[in-house]
Amino acid sequence: MRADKRHRSLIVLTCWVIRYAMNEFVHDGTTCSINKASTFILAFLHELETVEALSIRAKVSKDVKWYLPVDDTIKINFDTSFNPSSKSSAFGIIARDSHGLVMAACSHPPSEVVDAFIAEAIACERAVSFAADLGFRSVQIEGDSLSIIKNLTSATTNRSIFSPIINDIRIQRNLFERITFSFVGRAGNAAAHELAKLGSQFSEPMHWIEEVSTVVDRIVQRDRSP
Residue ranges of the RNase H type-1 domain (predicted)? Predict the structure, then answer.
């Protein structure tokens, strides 16, 4: 059964890569070698299988609560609201201190994104940039995307479809005295998720300093409760 599922995934990925390569050749005149294409397909298939295994593990975990960061660290949660039909995604980011108080937040309107994996990677990248722009020196970047967090905490070279974004995030780590990346279940990422959904209502990015919308504030207050 598992072999059949892997075979179907391999067929779908191969068709997707062939279509992508044809579009690249038609629009940009660039070609993709068989070796490069096969390496990408196998790497992405491995990525999907890893995410599936981690997702199963996460479902049995009950530890999905949002926790306060320690000391002077600022915890920054990020999330997306991906629309597969329009291939677009809105982003939500919220920064809180060790007392659970909102330091800043932002919500970005939908922009064109190929798939949910890339959407999550971009949201994480924007969370890091958001932290740097605000001058935070010690930060904990947290999201509910197992794949993105796994790639950022891995010592191996990333070869996934979103590897350029992951590499850019790694470069930005030099902007901080301390930066860590951690995974939290969806229930522990509710405030960022609501901000991402809120972004769908705007035509331009929205930023808040030491405040958020009423809906998000209720979630923040609930997170702060013992």
Answer: 77-198
Following CA atoms 82, 124, 45, 30 in sequence, which dihedral angle do they give, to the nearest 10 degrees?
A: 90
Q: Which CATH superfamily is domain 74-224 in?
A: Ribonuclease H-like superfamily/Ribonuclease H (3.30.420.10)
Which residue's structure tokens are 């660039």? 30
pTM, two decimal places: 0.73
Where are the CATH 3.30.420.10 domain residues in the chain?
A: 74-224
pLDDT tens digits, residue range 127-177?
Answer: 999 999 999 999 999 999 988 998 898 877 666 777 889 999 999 999 999
The residues, ordered by sequence, that sit 6+ positions from 173 with a Cβ below 8 Å of its Cβ are 128, 179
**How far is the C-alpha of 80 from the C-alpha of 95, rounded, in Å?**
15
Q: What is the pLDDT of residues 18-60, one digit of tens each?
A: 665 566 555 566 665 666 555 565 555 555 555 555 554 444 4
3-state secondary structure string, 135-187?
Answer: CCCEEEEEECCHHHHHHHHCCCCCCCCCHHHHHHHHHHHHHCCEEEEEECCHH
